[in-house]
Amino acid sequence: MIRRPRRSKAEPTIALINIVFLMLIFFMISGTLARPLDPSLKLIDTADLEGRAPPDALVVHADGRLSYEGRDVATPAAHVETLAEGERREIRIVPDRALPAETLVEIARALRAAGAERVMIVTERGLE
User: Fold this and answer.
1) Contacts of 12 (CB under 8 A, 6+ apart)
2) Could you tell me the pTM of the whole model?
3) How do the domains of the chain map onto residue ranges?
4) How many Å is the Cα radius of gyration of the chain?
5) Do 116 and 108 touch, CB atoms closer than 8 A?
6) Which UniProt keywords apply (predicted)?
7) What is the DSSP letter of 103?
8) How would you list the strands of the sheet with 90-95, edge to edge?
């Protein structure tokens, strides 16, 4: 009798890699698919509208000056102090387009240091 050489059991790593790869593709596709807009839908043209900040947002002008509800604010910490405890949870900033990024980061850090739990930057978003 001839003895066959014993084959070592193959590890199921290839099958595991295939399953993980298929799951990756599934989640990539399902995460990026969105229902298309109705072709008959005409979006609003906002080119001629005057941009206004939300009423509860801290406005940062191009020169770094701060204002809230039309009144000037001396410092980010002074703004946080004037807010009620519940309003300090989330502070919105509306920066001017010409404001340097370094200034915006400094103001956001100052707001966090003064007690703001979350600082949100309001920006313009367009659908094209």
Assistant:
1) none
2) 0.55
3) 57-121
4) 27
5) no
6) Cell membrane, Membrane, Protein transport, Transmembrane, Transmembrane helix, Transport
7) H
8) 71-73, 66-68, 57-60, 90-95, 118-121
Structure tokens at 87: 């309003």
Q: Quick one: which of 51, 76, 56 has its CA closest to 66?
A: 76
Q: How far apart are CA 110 and CA 89, in angstroms?
A: 14
Q: What is the DSSP string of 79-123?
A: HHHHS-GGGGSEEEEEE-TTS-HHHHHHHHHHHHHTT-SEEEE--
What's the CATH fold of domain 57-121? Nucleotidyltransferase; domain 5 (3.30.420)
CB-based contacts of 95, cutoff 8 Å, min separation 6: 60, 104, 121
Give backbone dihedrals phi and psi of 126, rounded to 5 degrees, phi first: -120, 145
pLDDT digits (tens, 9 = 90+) for 5-61: 777 676 678 888 999 999 999 888 877 666 665 676 565 555 554 555 566 788 888
